[in-house]
Amino acid sequence: MSAASHGATPYYFVPGPSRHPIMAAIGLFFVILGAGQWINGHGWGAYSLLFGLLWWAFVLKQWFGDAIRESEGGLYGRRIDVSYRWSMSWFIFSEVMFFAAFFGALFWARVFAVPTLGSLDNAILWPDFKAVWPSVVPGATASPAGTVEAFSTMGPWPIPTINTALLLSSGVTLTIAHHALVAGERGKTIFWMWLTVLLGIVFLGFQAYEYHHAYSELNLKLTSGIYGSTFFMLTGFHGFHVLVGMLMLLFITIRLMKGHFTKDRHFGFEGAAWYWHFVDVVWLGLYVIVYWM
């Protein structure tokens, strides 16, 4: 019998010992190992990465399933709700610092590293280098030693601008869904949530096409100097966060269709919404700094 059926909620629910943390850590180990080896030219790294992702997804499905059953069983009271809110807040803060590191790398390269390489002190070592960003101008090269192939930069039109409109629109549809949930209009909430998920999927499709265009037509790759590495690290990690956010919203939508959440108790919905709005804000920074500047 659940706590809900007894009409009582624990003062503070403490779950029993769980295998999920160590199992998730094992999956992440293979993810990091595989990614590191794959990017350094070892083909088996791709299989390790895939195995780790599948393992990780399986563990998270079980872990989140337990949390959902506990929540729907009436075991989560106000104090658990507060702890979840603080946990999600600190998680998003860690993500802010994560992206701040890559934005900081881009800032340092443009403002300090490139000008220093083009200074008089380095003129003898790099006589052909021009201190301009992204070092793709007539008569200049991003790699005086010839280790970086010529490439073209990615402009803001049309795909990045279309994706900006998609993400901003998804933020609006998600907010409408939230207001509908608070008003007790479950059918309306589900409709706007499905639309939000669809906008996220379309965004990912456009980004995949943009990457194909970059590699096949612009010769812009992860190995294209500091521009290529910062471009793909920032946009790639953001795309991964869009994928994660879209999956979060998808599962929240499925839970809504199963009758989960009420107008007064729906932090699972709110936590996913916080994450999605964070992804929107990061993209606005990327759109301005990476594509326009």
Layout of helices and strands:
Layout: H1 3-6, H2 20-39, H3 44-72, H4 78-117, H5 159-182, H6 186-216, H7 225-257, H8 267-292
Helix pairs in contact: 2-3, 4-7, 4-8, 5-6, 5-8, 6-7, 7-8
Summarize the entry for a quick read.
This protein is 71% helix and 0% strand. The protein is built from 8 helices and no strands. Helix 6 runs antiparallel to helix 7.
Question: What structural keywords apply?
Answer:
mainly alpha; Four Helix Bundle (Hemerythrin (Met), subunit A); 71% helix; elongated
What does this structure look like?
There is one protein chain. With 293 residues, the protein is mostly helical. It has 2 domains: 1-76; 80-292, Cytochrome c oxidase, subunit III, four-helix bundle (Four Helix Bundle (Hemerythrin (Met), subunit A), Up-down Bundle). The chain is 71% helix and 0% strand. α4 (78-117) runs parallel beside α8 (267-292).
Unreliably modeled segments = 1-6
SSE series: HHHHHHHH
Strand content: under 5%
| Structural class by sheet pairing and helices | mainly alpha
Largest β sheet strand count, sense and barrel closure: none
CATH topology of the largest domain: Four Helix Bundle (Hemerythrin (Met), subunit A)
Question: Superfamily at the CATH H level of the largest domain?
Answer: Cytochrome c oxidase, subunit III, four-helix bundle
| Residues in helix, % | over 70%
Q: Tell how many strands the DSSP assignment holds.
A: 0
Number of contiguous helices: 8
The shape, in one word, is elongated
The top-level CATH class of the largest domain is Mainly Alpha
**Distance linking N and C termini:** 60 Å
Estimated radius of gyration: 23 Å
* Mean of all residue-level pLDDT scores: 90
CATH structural architecture of the largest domain: Up-down Bundle
* Integer count of domains: 2
